[in-house]
Amino acid sequence: MQIHACMLALRTRRPVKMSYGRQESFYGHVHRHPSRIWMRHGALRDGTLVNVQARLLVDGGAYTSTSPAVIGNATTFAAGPYEVPNARLVGTAVFTNNPPCGAMRGFGAVQACFAYEAQIDRLAAALSLDPVQLRLKNALRSGSVLPTGQPITGAAPVRECLQRLQDLPLPAEESPLDRDPMLLPGGTGNVGHGEAIKRGVGVAVGYKNLAYSEGFDDSSEAWVRVSIDREGPIAEVKTAAVEVGQGIDTIVTQIVRTELGIDRVVVRQPDTTIGSAGSSSASRQTMMTGGAVQLACQAVRTEIERHGGLQDLRQPVEASRVFHHRPTRKLDAEGQGDPHVSFAFGAARAVVEVDTDLGLVRVVQLAVAQDVGRALNPQSVLGQIEGGSARRAFLVRSRVAAPRGWDWR
Questions:
Q1: Residue pair 349/162 in contact by the 8 Å Cβ criterion
Q2: Which residues, including other chains, have CB under 8 Å from residue 19's CB and lie 6 or more apart?
Q3: How would residue 394 be classed by pLDDT, with cut points 50, 70 and 90?
Q4: How far apart are CA 365 and CA 348, in angstroms?
Q5: DSSP character at residue 335
Q6: Which in 27, 200, 207, 321 has the greatest CB count within 10 A?
Q7: What is the pTM of this model?
Q8: How many Cα atoms are found within 13 Å in the side-chain-facing hemisphere of 49?
């Protein structure tokens, strides 16, 4: 729809705003894959996981879109961020006559997470164990080997995320009968007075991949130019990375300033002289385009130093560089390989009040501990976490309030 809006703006020479209704949304773009997942977990009496069996079936709708990648991710993550010595994970994506499905935030990891975390809660109840302690006992760590045979070579702070959640204080218990009616489930509707409110606490942990997977040779190109004008040194940078609110233009500017020590940075609009930066998806732009910008800056800096430094620079210096992440490998016939570049982990705790008579819900607190690596722009990272958490709160509200028998797909 962005293309249509731009074409209309060019044609009318006026600002144009477009919005899809619900039916138009289904016609206009893909949505998340509805999924059915069957799981069986085996564990010792002390909670040590022994095996996981999972079968995943995702509805790709009428066209292929990204279904192969989505089911690939969902299946490789189906055992969760846990040490599992034995696993049988089978995933299938099917064509149907439903609306087409494709890339949506989480890209298969979300469907699997909802299933394996529900299973962990059930397992904890069956063993009479604390759900958080069960997760801590089996959490992945650096060096752990995933069911695909891929070892985790980077950080895997699953325990740290869960422990930080535990350190965050729970909200104080309040008597429903004495509080402001606006703070009851139902709020402004004033439909209940708190006679049948129960409070519950839920914890979940999950993980996802960064960048494209399964042997795709992902890359991004960047161009950097340094020159001297009347005001001093100026750096120009150009990539094809698309800014969609995630802050890549700010990240690119920060990298140039850090690598070159030049405050004046101009982010040029992309054109056909610069190569692809890939999509703004898969949590990849900071790593991929940021990596390309860093390489280009280093090449420019080396050339500037060869000329005696910025003070002796008489003509512009520019360089283009392409960044590739480490190679990955597709899964073989036995489901073994090295499919993912890297991983990010996170944990969340929801405190929810439910009016059991009316089915109304209030999210009292949503605490989140996220593995973000080195935050190049902490303010942007916090904004991303807050935005994602607000969406999680909506999903918590929706799922708790769902009618009995509702099929949450």
A1: no
A2: none
A3: low
A4: 10
A5: S
A6: 207
A7: 0.86
A8: 28
